[in-house]
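Dear Dr. H.,

I hope your travels went smoothly. While you were away I took the liberty of generating a structure for the chain from your last submission, since the lab meeting agenda had it listed for discussion. I wanted you to have the full record in hand beforehand rather than looking at slides cold. The sequence, exactly as received, is reproduced here:
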Amino acid sequence: MVEIRQLNPTRSNLKKFVEFQIDLYKGNPYFVPPLVSDEIATLDSKVNPAFDHCESAYFMAYRDGKAVGRIAAMINKQVNEKENSRQARFGFVDFIDDAEVSKALFDAAEKWAKEKGMDNIVGPLGFTDLDNEGMLINGFEELGTMATIYNYPYYPAHVERLGYEKEVDWHEFLIEIPEQIPDKHKRIAEIVKKKFNLRVVKFTSRKALKEQYGQALFELINEAYDNLYGYSRLTKRQIDYYIKIYLGMLNLDLVTLIVDGEDQLVGVGISIQSMSRALQKSKGKMFPFGWWHLLKGLKGKNDRVDLLLVAVKPQYMGKGVNALLFTDLIPAYNKYGFKWAESNPELESNAAVQNQWEAFPYRQHRNRRAFIKRL
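The corresponding predicted structure, in token form, is as follows:
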């Protein structure tokens, strides 16, 4: 018999909720654990400013006193108001390969959503687009990334058996980094610079980056991503929060800003050396020795780089700004010995973004999906 418990979201309970996933995937060579402390912060309403317009409930499944599954049910009121919908989200979902367990978990999330007056439930999604989203539907034998969800191959079958259908897919690409900037990119970059009076800006100080462009960077993300599926605009409090936790860890060689003649930000590309192996070795924990593996991941040799973020001001989209970004970034990738770049999830409908990889050797190596169910 499966017992479902709704968690009182104390720090100790959230820790159990997060660590269930890490225990479930112990020994899996493709799973990349989150940093437990970061994941707890995301789920904690006292820490994460997304809770200014979100609410959530966390459920764990037990059999014979042993944890066998978990799920979060969420409502993003800001997105519902924007889309004139009554939609709940599910996410942070993991379970053993047992139909009774998965049904009990989703029943709990659906019951909570109905009691909140929701018409449907969709996921896996997070509170915002900066949380991991989308259930892996192929590419199970590919190493995950710090910015994506990994799940066992049996997950999608369980979800579909419970009456969920496809809502949207994301594609992911592994791109071979050229030793030289492609001639086409060089030509386009020069044309774009002259035509729109644009220039590349680089920083050597994280403090200066935060002070000069931290706010503008996340405002650009809001502007560039606003029409993407399920996007939740970042508030001032969220922007301040993300500036504090993210911008301080970046390798500034891998951050490229594009500004116009008035120094207004029109494009940004942010990459980070792959932390996948380092997070695996750390087992998601900073202490006692996880910090050492993470430091080595940031400073040591690596053949992969994650393209965390590319954002371009809407009026400049499709006009070659991406070529200008990668004309600056490719030499930096070569400097650090990167051979491959992970695109991370891109909406299947976003052909403009996906078409940019045609200039490079690449392969589509993962697909992931959000599923929806009417309540």
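Two observations you may find useful: The mean pLDDT is 90. The radius of gyration is 21 Å.

With kind regards,
E. W.
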